[in-house]
Structures are given as C-alpha cells and as structure tokens.
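Practice set, problem 2.
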Amino acid sequence: METYMYYSEEEDIYNDRYKGHFSKKLADWAISRMIKKSSDGKIESVKKRSIEDFDLFIKENNMKVPYESYYDAYYLWHMADADYRKALEDAKHIAAFIDETINDPDCVPTAVLACFKAKMNECGIPIYWEKFI
C-alpha cells in the first residue's frame, strides 16, 4: 500500500503557528467528522461536547495537560467515545488514555496531529489548511 502525503504552503503556515498540534478550529472540524456505531449497530455522528465539559473532565480526573497539547487532548477525549468505547468504559480509563497518549515518553509531542493527518490521508480526505490558520 502506498501513501501519498501532500504538503502545502498553508500546512507549513499552520504548523509554524500551532507547532504541530491541534488548534480549536481544526479539533472542532476533526470531531465533526467522527462517527461511531450506536448500541443498535447504526452509524451515527459523535456528539461534540463543550470545552467547559472538557475542562471539568480534566479537573475531576486531576489531569495535567500541557498547554500546547490542550486541543490534542480535546480531540482524543472525543476519539475515545468514537473508537474506544468498549475498552475505555469510564472517565478514569479515558483520562489515562489521554494522559498516556499526549505524554508518551517514546513518541514526539506532535504525534496526535500526525496520526490524524495520516488517517485523513489514508481515507482520501483533504485537509484545507487555510481554513484553520
């Protein structure tokens, strides 16, 4: 399987500005694209939850989210609902997943966005970077 990653000047501008992390606009867009299987097996959109709810989740779970990784963590919080609901069945496990992902000692801090870009590339979904600058 061959992968073609297309780079643009707008992506370079985005990366210069956000240092390889999600911005609020990009996280919102990525979350809006998430789908999951409902309990009856139907495909449905993931319901976007508020920043205030996420801040409360962080506080209740005593999480330390680095400033630059805040929207990476917000994206992962939603991804846990979309992709890992069986494995991460409660807030404690979701918090641990987010923490271990954004603070992975053998990975670069920008891996969350890199994985998202790879997924979009593999699915043939373009990211119009100029919308997120």
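Problem 2, part (b): a different protein.
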Amino acid sequence: MEEMEVAINAASSPSVKIWLNWMMIIFLSSIIFALKHKSTWLILAAFFLSLPIALYIFGRTQSVHLIGLAHIALWIPLAIFLYISELKGRPAKLKIPYGIYLVLLLATITISLFLDIRDAILILLGGS
C-alpha cells in the first residue's frame, strides 16, 4: 500500500491531491447518516472495497492511472442504485440534508468516473 501511495503522490498534482481528499471526505461523511439510512452502508462498503481492488490492480500493473478501474467496477453500480432507490421521483428528498449529501456524492462519483474512464482509455490506447 505504501508503494502505491508513493506512486500516487509522485504522479499527482496538488489539485489531484485536493480532489482525492475531497473524495475521502464525501464518502466518509456517509457515517453521519448511517443510523437513519441503510444505503450509507453500501456507500461505505463500495468505498472501502475499492482500496483492496486498487491495490491489486496497482500490484499487477504498477500504474496509478489504472487503479480507477476499481472505482469503475464499484461506483457505477453504486451510483445507479443510489439514484434509483433514493432520489428518482423524490424531489422533496433534495431539500433534506441526506438528499443534499447524496447529490454531492453522486456529483463526486460522476466526476471521478469520468476521470477514471479517461485515464483507463489513455493507458489502454498507449498514452500516459
């Protein structure tokens, strides 16, 4: 894990480091809602499961740009589930703290997935 962390730090700009910190904050913030909303346990599970998958991918490829495949595998189903089960057809939910949190989380996941998919495509097409 330390080797992957060193590689991420070496390959990341200050803005990417801020983004990584934001992702950690937004995912871990689900703990605030854990007693009232069962979906938060899926959010935490997806977040914590992505780490060993990312470690495996890094161990096999030594590429920090491919560790986003862990996000792609776990966060796409999570985002779809959260939207359908928590937000779709429930505009009033957008006015409560949990709904606002979900919108922030889904926006974060969407941006992250866009970047992860872009990185994977660049690597797979031979770029860096």
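Answer key, part (b): The first helix runs from residue 2 to 11. Residues 30 and 105 are 9 Å apart (CA to CA).
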